[in-house]
Amino acid sequence: MSELGARHLLIKFEGSRNPVSRRTGASTSGVTAAQAEQELQSYADKVRPRGASEEVFAKYACERSDCGSFKSGGDLGLFGPGQMQKQFEDGVKGTAVGKMSGIVLSDSGYHLVFRTP
């Protein structure tokens, strides 16, 4: 399989393997899974009506993602098989290029994925 490209917006919660936001440095141990999923759904609802463009997705990833990639609009660049957590990689594979995924749960937290070429 060839490399995959993606941006993502991650919301960490109390069950995340490292419950600390890379954007703020604050603990997310007080955030429940339900709260994280609900907040992430609100971002999906903001992106979709605006055409789910990569530019719009990147704007919201900069504003909210708990991953260090927030600085680059959630851009993870290209990665090969096995380089990301399986749940996340499966979520990327299941999303068409130029489209946004549904909510993906991994050991890191809840993600929205925007598949890039």
Explain this structure to me?
It is a single chain. This protein is of the alpha+beta class. It has one domain: Chitinase A, domain 3, CATH 3.10.50. 29% of the residues lie in helices and 21% in strands. The protein is built from three helices and four strands. It has helices spanning 33-47, 54-64, 86-93; strands spanning 4-11, 75-79, 104-106, 109-116. Strands 2-1-4-3 form a four-stranded antiparallel β-sheet, sandwiched between helices. The longest helix is centred in the middle third of the chain and has 15 residues, at 33-47. The protein starts with a strand and ends with a strand.
Keyphrases for this structure?
four-stranded antiparallel sheet, alpha+beta, 29% helix, single chain, Chitinase A, domain 3, 117 residues
Topology:
Blueprint: E1 4-11, H1 33-47, H2 54-64, E2 75-79, H3 86-93, E3 104-106, E4 109-116
Antiparallel strand pairs: 1-2, 1-4, 3-4
Brief sketch in words of this structure:
It is built from 3 helices and 4 strands.
Distance from first to last alpha carbon = 14 Å
Q: So what's the overall shape?
A: globular
Give the total of domains: 1
Number of strands: 4
Report Rg: 13 Å
Strand residues, percent: 15-25%
**Backbone structural class:** alpha+beta
Pfam family, one: Rotamase
GO molecular function: peptidyl-prolyl cis-trans isomerase activity
Domain PpiC: 1-117
Keywords: Isomerase, Rotamase
